[in-house]
Design goal:
42% of the residues lie in helices and 21% in strands. The chain has a six-stranded antiparallel sheet with strand order 2-1-5-4-3-6, with helices on both faces. Helix 7 packs across helix 8.
Amino acid sequence: MSDLNSDILEYILTSNMTSYELEALDVLPLGKDQAIYVFDLAMGEIAYSRGVENLLGYTRGEFDMDLVSQYFHPHDQKRMEIIMKASIQYATSNVMLDVDSKLFLNSRIRHKKGHFVHVFRQTTVFNSNERGEMTANFSLLSNIDFIPFSGVGYSMDANGNSVQLFDETVKNMSIQGLTKREKQIFTLLKAGLSSQDISKQLFVSKNTVDTHRRNMLKKTSCKNTVELIAYLSGND
């Protein structure tokens, strides 16, 4: 599967598509557990898709951005929303965007029949304007149910500055989603304080602190405090 993925992404990256040549995607080879789609940022819609019905059960007519924004596992939804919003904000505002950049996402996606599929998504620039801003992206989805799911993850293959800027965007968006009290508790957790210590410092009950901690884990789709601290510190 890795060789096929590499060939598809290499084709997109080297084809220098200055206008939508969507028909060219019809000849790209896909595995039976793979799908591709192109998202037009200006129109806010999916301009092309193929293989989605085999992978996830949805027809081309059903596979739109309303579906894509809501088809994640409930436990993965919040973090995926943040990562997707951050990627679009970063790509459309960064005029120095490396056109060879690739974003890798690992999550669970709801099949039309109701069960969830472990999917590895690889996204890259499909089209950009004269200012170098991305106007459309290309995504390759692959079923990786054979790999045990251990949580939502992402990584970026780009120059060092791009990776750092994107991580900062994700971190800032994640922190913005916390309440003032949750931010206080997170800062103290990061400093190594226990719930009991935090309750004494903030003059609240330990149960209140624990409730805030659970809410932070839910908002960020993190499994535990160690993962939460790593995630909100920049996905280290």
